[in-house]
Amino acid sequence: MDALALHISNGVLNGPVSAIYGVIALVALAYCISRSRGDLDDRLAPMAGLVAAFIFAVQMLNFPVLPGVSGHLLGGAMAALLVGPWVGALCVSVVLIVQALVFADGGVTALGANVTNMALVGTAVAYLLVALLLRVLPRTPTGLGITAFVASVVAVVAASQSFVLQYALGGTTDLEHYSLGAIAAVMAGTHLLIGIGEGLIAAVTVVTVAKTRPDLVYALRGLKPVRPATAEGVTA
């Protein structure tokens, strides 16, 4: 299953499916740009640059998780928490574009599919969970950390299943010995492990920022700052 890394290479998907997802990505990113104009300000713009740089660094670390299957961190949940869904999707997209064009990490023909999976699906799923969890969990460091962790795990697995859908529509790699259900299970299991690692990193990062500068956390805007949670053994 060498083809089953979430960062799709050239030739894994056929031309029509690659083209369709290229159009989907372009339209979605144009919408993100239009929505992000109202979000960018003196606080969010520098944070967006830092988030993109951090995601670029962690995505360059590819590692094997199962035989023949590799993966890497995505960063969509952390981006959604810190800079919001619209700017977050753009940050991840910029990283993916630079990786494909400059470092040949991810196929150019599969760029639309990669952007759809990691920047659009991953970030959207993460922010939906963030919006839900922050309504029911206490807005303490512990609550914010749990939110970041859960959103990261679910978003990474969702992105992996988005690839499975793409592969079902137009996969070209010879995997006749594996059913679509088996491919989905391998991708989900692999990226569940990746998501746990990403969730821990995202939780530590977001909580650290929130403790020092809660105004820089997009998900907390309009809400009360993160409070110390001495009863839970967490200090701000």
Quick overview of this protein structure:
This protein is mainly α and 236 residues long. The protein is built from seven helices and two strands, in the order ααββααααα.
Shape: globular
Strand order of the largest sheet: 1-2
Main sheet summary: 2 strands, antiparallel
Number of strands: 2
Quickly give the structural class: mainly alpha
Over all CA atoms, what is the radius of gyration?
Answer: 18 Å
Multimer state: single chain
Layout of strands and helices, then pairs:
Elements: H1 15-36, H2 44-59, E1 63-66, E2 69-71, H3 76-83, H4 85-102, H5 111-136, H6 141-170, H7 180-212
Antiparallel strand pairs: 1-2
Helix pairs in contact: 1-4, 1-5, 2-3, 2-4, 3-4, 3-5, 3-6, 3-7, 4-5, 5-6, 6-7
Structure description:
With 236 residues, this protein is mostly helical. The protein is 65% helix and 3% strand. The chain is built from seven helices and two strands. Strands 1-2 form a two-stranded antiparallel sheet. Strand 1 (63-66) and strand 2 (69-71) form a beta hairpin. Helix 3 (76-83) crosses helix 6 (141-170) and helix 4 (85-102) packs antiparallel against helix 5. The longest helix is centred in the last third of the chain and has 33 residues, at 180-212. The radius of gyration is 18 Å and the shape is globular. The relative contact order is 0.17. Residues 65-69 and 228-236 have low confidence and may be disordered.
Brief descriptors of the model:
236 residues, mainly alpha, two-stranded antiparallel sheet, globular, disordered C terminus
